[in-house]
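worker-03 picked up job from queue 'complexes'. Input manifest follows; two sequence lines, order preserved.
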Amino acid sequence: MTTWKDFADLKATQRLTELAQQPYNLARPDSLPPERIAACRASACGFDLLYATQRVDDRVLVALQELADEAGLVAQHKAMKSGAVMNRIIGHASEERQVLHTACRDVFSDTPLAPEATAQAKEQLARLKQFLAEVDSGAVCNGQGQSFTTMLQVGIGGSDLGPRALYLALERYRLPGRSARFIANVDPDDAAAVLSGLDLSRTLINVVSKSGSTLETRTNEELVRTALVNAGLNPARHLVAVTGAGSPMDDPDKYRASFHMYDYIGGRYSATSMVGGVTLGFTLGYDQFVEVLRGAHEMDKAAEQPALRDNLPLLMAMLGIWNRNFLGYNTVAVLPYSQALLRFPAHLQQCDMESNGKQVSRCGSPVTWKTGPIVWGEPGTNGQHAFYQLLHQGTEIVPAEFIGFRCSQHGRDITVSGTTSQQKLVANMLAQSLAMAQGRSHDNPNKHFAGNRPSSVLIAEQLTPYAMGALLALYENRIAFQGFCWNINSFDQEGVQLGKVLADRLLAALSGEKALSADAPESSLLKAAGMAG
Amino acid sequence: MTTWKDFADLKATQRLTELAQQPYNLARPDSLPPERIAACRASACGFDLLYATQRVDDRVLVALQELADEAGLVAQHKAMKSGAVMNRIIGHASEERQVLHTACRDVFSDTPLAPEATAQAKEQLARLKQFLAEVDSGAVCNGQGQSFTTMLQVGIGGSDLGPRALYLALERYRLPGRSARFIANVDPDDAAAVLSGLDLSRTLINVVSKSGSTLETRTNEELVRTALVNAGLNPARHLVAVTGAGSPMDDPDKYRASFHMYDYIGGRYSATSMVGGVTLGFTLGYDQFVEVLRGAHEMDKAAEQPALRDNLPLLMAMLGIWNRNFLGYNTVAVLPYSQALLRFPAHLQQCDMESNGKQVSRCGSPVTWKTGPIVWGEPGTNGQHAFYQLLHQGTEIVPAEFIGFRCSQHGRDITVSGTTSQQKLVANMLAQSLAMAQGRSHDNPNKHFAGNRPSSVLIAEQLTPYAMGALLALYENRIAFQGFCWNINSFDQEGVQLGKVLADRLLAALSGEKALSADAPESSLLKAAGMAG
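worker-03 finished. Artifact:
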């Protein structure tokens, strides 16, 4: 097994620190000759990454390769996929788990890297296929014998963001008459608004919680069950579950079908497990869900290549490390030029920030280097009319990751002023990347652009189920590579515990179950917020 | 007129720099006694701001007051509302405009601060009232004499984000049978997806563009007109416009009704003008839109108070300046514990980052101090299950602004484990604020929370039209105060121009109108992206 080395102990960091004193100057005239743009291009699974507009030269790329090699990133990734216990902190109580979301999609060969987990994935896929066939045939139907048209997914965090982002991205491929809705927030207005627009009698409710005890999901499940009963419907006929084997929700009496996920799949990495599979399969059809898996699996394979130029996830990871640790930028904007990817940045916020927003190394020491950045973003061209002012002229530099497609999904387009909307979309994306890099001198200081604001462009032919799977896995693997490089555990989330403990204390006071001491900050806060008594 | 002073020249900055060496330690035991929590509370228009969990003490608050006074912030704000030319850069070509979005809501007294602009606002309100009465009576109807049920707003940036955020926030108050949809992105899939779910025959299309020439909006208007014609409908019967007087869209032959906005209203500050008014009035009713204006106006009045403790927008502005310029934090998370505020952070991204993401002072010199932060956020409790790990344990500190309400909008709630969902929502919000502030010591370094992560809680009774108006104006005024303090022009957006120029160049090449030189980066990028030829 690869030794886990602290980031600060990697020799290549010294070289990179030196190189960062004079990063490639994108704002110099002729800094983007044709040969640079052609050379700074890497591809996998139909995606091309254009990175000429990053502040890197060959020396930096060589040093980043050295850093990746020294840290054994590709070997660690392979170990992860093969079932090594990567979710741990040495010398301290920790989750001590395998990390095998990749096994959910390693279902296309007879020699998967983690045979047991893949066998479990295949078993769940077979159950899903069977269930969906029964939905299609009408064997699974409502009390009046009618087919189900809508799936309402009730979950939060990883049981919501990934599946929702993928569903919205792929809505275009829905089966006729099928659709999905989602409830996540404990805010009662969320559930009320969604339920008010639904025909519950034709709705299957898919409750998703790995632990089977997530407060928000339990509460929303109760709310939905009450709504069903009030509508004269039998909850047992309308609810299905995705949960861990043996969880409080793993109860066939309460759900007409149950699908399992396993403790080696983290919530934020679970979109390609049954957590995403049931709703995507119901709405898009089983075969399209398999296409998502195929794209993800092929990107997982691409992550096995040792050379940066051949390994898109690793290349993106190392460019991110360069921007984060050596150029010192603490945020990343993910800017899809595709309205269908509206919620993909929100999914990445979870996947990246919950994975790599860490302070302790896997060896149990506080880190002395920067870990995960703040990830945010909105679709372009909308963003151009919103926050791009700051990207171009603010006092903070924000590395940007543009994502685009050469063809639209719907194919319903219009030519205005000689170009289609899709051409306008892609042209705007490329123009932004160029404007951030090169800047523009101007006598009027308010019209001056300093340039040297780094970005990459990721482009593919069309946002299909396969492409979505590949894009998802590209980011998942980028995140894992960065976590390995920073020597942090990207697979736990201890940072969310304290808030839960304090919330429970406040709720115990509100329910009258347990009084708070009068000088506790909790008491004073409840009072100041007008929530006491 | 107040002299505009550079931020670095304000004497209080020295004192604040000293104080920032030892900011208030929130993680010390007993750092949050009842008297601090009770004292650190300010109110306006039904909102309470709890700021005991900011790293401030009385000395800091006194120095922030001095800073505000020295920079003449309240006087500048009053000058803005009274029609001073605040949108300018001294000594350089600039927009040279008044900034009078506040006049749109200064419609409740006979002595408004900017009488001419308010008279124009009242004229537009009267036209809107008349138009909506005709919609209600059926005088405005479709070709078959049927009433209109849906308004489709076509706009982008300020003509989309604010109106959309407010509509989603207030959907609960819709008139029976009325709803709104929005198209913004030039992505043809955005329009296709929205149009496919609409009954166009019952839809009024509200095209919003101040200039009347925004590329995305023109393109989407063409696309919608084509869809109407293809459906056998007469566009002139279905389209209304909100635009600047005299713009290319100000054409009664093409729109069945037109409403005006004026050059003294910036797009990102236009939600309380007709840009938001037409769609909000159509869906919620005229009187509810007036309630939005009333809330905004009352918050504008609160911004006239000289003392921080009496002026909520100024207090929030100065706490932000403390975090940004003295504690050095470059992002702000806006975290509404209300699903209805789902898109409010996206609106604020525009309003804040486009206003204050600036590099040049109003005196025409490059700034030597930090200006606007990166604003981002998602609703809680969803965010707790996503990116809060980084907020609590990441290597970056992110000041947070929580927003919550004591009562839900729908009032459809459920009690689980002794508390309602709304109680759970608010308890979680308060708990997060406390957890970030206090942290928790633990022997296991991975379960240790360092604390001292600053936040505020903004809480009101319920998210009503009045409260939404007040909240909107609270942030608009906070942003303006910060811009005044940084001595930047918060009302132009020169930073978006370069991207437009480059996009036009790429589009001219794609349409064949004008070839690019073969070594131009634009050519190579198109080729590398697979878009050439």
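worker-03 released lock.
The radius of gyration of chain B is 24 Å.
The longest strand of chain B covers residues 203-209.
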